[in-house]
Write a structure and sequence with these properties.
Mean pLDDT: 79
Largest sheet: 2 strands, antiparallel
Number of helices: 3
Helix content: 25-40%
Low-confidence stretches: none
Length: about 100
């Protein structure tokens, strides 16, 4: 958990994917540390659907269900600001933040 609370959480079958990267194993291990694997997130190899509809296997960092908590108000405000600047759907953020409270 970061910033005094949890993280917004998308449903198990729907999530926002960041950029797809091809990394050699040593760099993947560095990314693991950055993403908090295995203590905060778990890295799993899952099928994902790209924007063009094609499916591929990818490493995905997943927040374990037992680690969910609502994000701290300050952190949620930071996310709202970033979503607004980037033109992302605030409804998606609200749904993910509500899902974190499970």
């Amino acid at each position: 958990m970061g910033r005094g609370g949890g993280h917004p959480r998308a449903g198990p079958r729907r999530a926002h994917l960041g950029p797809a990267l091809q990394l050699p194993e040593p760099e993947l291990l560095v990314l693991d540390r950055y993403e908090g694997h295995p203590w905060a997130y778990r890295r799993k190899r899952l099928f994902v659907t790209q924007d063009d509809g094609r499916q591929r296997r990818a490493h995905v960092y997943v927040l374990p269900a037992e680690a969910t908590a609502a994000p701290a108000p300050g952190y949620l405000q930071v996310l709202r600001g970033a979503y607004g600047r980037l033109g992302f759907d605030l409804g998606t953020l609200a749904a993910a933040a509500a899902g974190g409270a499970r």
